[in-house]
Amino acid sequence: MIKTLILTLLPLMYSMDVFSQGHNHGQHSMSEAEMSKMKALPPSNVSGRVSIPLNAVQQQFIGVKTEKVGMRALKRLIYLHGVVGYDETQLYDINIKTSGYIGQLAVNKQGQYVEKGELLLTIYSPELYQAQEELLQAIETQRKLGDPWNTLVEAAKNRLRLWDITNTQIDEIVESGEIKKYLPIYAPISGIVAEKLIFPKNEVKAGSTLLKIANLSQVWLEAEAYEADLPLLKLGQTADLTLSYFPGMRFQAKINFVYPFLDPMTRTVKVRFVIENVDNKFLPGMYATVVTAEVLKPSLVAPNSAILNLGKEKIVYKALGDGVYVPQLIETGFSAEGMTQIIKGLNLDEEIVVNGNFLIDSESQLKSSASEGGMGDMKM
């Protein structure tokens, strides 16, 4: 480790010796000639740093490279992590509006696939039994006494309809003239049994949910997004989605809802993506990573390597030609693709240092300190 540290510091020590040509070792102030030369350089707007001149040998030694400030539309990538869930618009509750008892239960387990119209269960209900009796009595009364408006029969049928008995089932009761002790309940859609809340012979109360059936042809994914990313997430925006379960494969997702509230603890907002679930690859509960890109408006940009972060301030070094480098305060925006938006401080086509700027900055600080010392000696 010590050997590595020495090897790391040797180039820096040697570079400082190259920079210090013409200075006495241990001397912290400048001669009048050097002071005069420094005063002729462009002024710096960065505290503790001054413009510096470098000769060709110095520039070559530290590997100074420059680039021009340009215009570019950055593409910002946003990575989100979430969990696959049911599409709630395709999730159906199988309820019962009257109390009763479960007879046959055709659904054996949670996760079982059922087709639309397939028998799910049968149920016995004293109220449904009585409603069937009333229907058959109304038909008999109409046959004997006559009822041109069919009011009694229609009233009896409507009562059954209110309990979700279908017209087909009502027609079967009318045609057979028999009361069905156990009435069947069929699947309203094709899908999987997401929840099974009953067993054979169970007593169930009015309003109870017996089963939940989910159509998985389309699923949702809910991910957490930081509030700073919200301006870049829009309804209808597409994204790439990956699953660890399918390495190397990418799927498409689309934003269809951004929740209108923030979690005060995590400072995140839920973003919902919709996924076309081809071949039922996506199962509820799976973890997934979503990558969405937003192309920003063209703006001034500089390479990240050109920017020195001083804590509260950020600077670059402008190359003015003839080996003169000037520190410049800047304000920055988004960073992406190795570039950073420049909000303030630079103009298009200005030349800036992208390599060697750390050593230039060190020399700039030394020159600044030396010039302050030199001015102090001159005043004395």
Describe the structure.
There is one protein chain. The chain has 380 residues and is of the alpha+beta class. It folds into three domains: 28-73 and 298-379, conserved putative lor/sdh protein from methanococcus maripaludis s2 fold (Beta Barrel), CATH 2.40.420; 77-87 and 216-295, Beta Barrel (Elongation Factor Tu (Ef-tu), domain 3); 97-207, no CATH class. Helix content is 26%, strand content 36%. It contains seven helices and 23 strands. It has helices at residues 2-19, 32-39, 56-62, 126-145, 151-162, 167-176, 357-379; strands at 52-53, 65-68, 70-72, 75-86, 91-95, 100-105, 113-114, 119-124, 183-186, 191-196, 203-204, 209-214, 218-226, 238-242, 251-258, 268-276, 287-295, 299-303, 308-309, 314-321, 324-336, 339-344, 351-355. The strands form five sheets. Strands 1, 3, 18, 19, 20, 21 and 22 form a seven-stranded antiparallel beta sheet that branches. Strands 4-13-16-15-14-17 form a six-stranded antiparallel barrel. Helix 4 (126-145) runs antiparallel to helix 5. The longest helix is centred in the last third of the chain and has 23 residues, at 357-379. Residues 1-28 and 375-380 have low confidence and may be disordered.
Count of helical stretches: 7
* Major β-sheet annotation: 7 strands, antiparallel
Percent helix, as a range, is 25-40%
What is the number of strand segments? Answer: 23
Topology order in helix (H) and strand (E) letters: HHEHEEEEEEEHHHEEEEEEEEEEEEEEEH
The CATH class designation of the largest domain is Mainly Beta
Low-confidence stretches: 1-28, 375-380
Kindly report the average pLDDT value: 86
Tell me the β content.
Answer: 35-45%
> What is the CATH third-level topology name of the largest domain?
conserved putative lor/sdh protein from methanococcus maripaludis s2 fold
Count of all domains: 3
Oligomer: single chain
Shape: rod-shaped
Assign the structural class, choosing from mainly alpha, mainly beta, alpha/beta, alpha+beta, or little secondary structure: alpha+beta
**Termini Cα gap:** 46 Å
The radius of gyration over CA amounts to: 39 Å
